[in-house]
Amino acid sequence: xxxxxxxxxxxxxxxxxxxxxxxxxxxxxxxxxxxxxxxxxxxxxxxxxxxxxxxxxxxxxxxxx
Length: 65
Description:
This protein is mainly beta.
């Protein structure tokens, strides 16, 4: 995938599923195959990760308006 064809940019809000939970986060960095997303500390606890930063494939999120 070409970075020019990616529809999200830094600062955009995205919705994705992780461990059967629906999570909303903010895009911090756009990569070629994925985005780095910051989620809330409570969502991080909910999905049992130690940091509020997570990587989401371009195939697995929806951009929020």
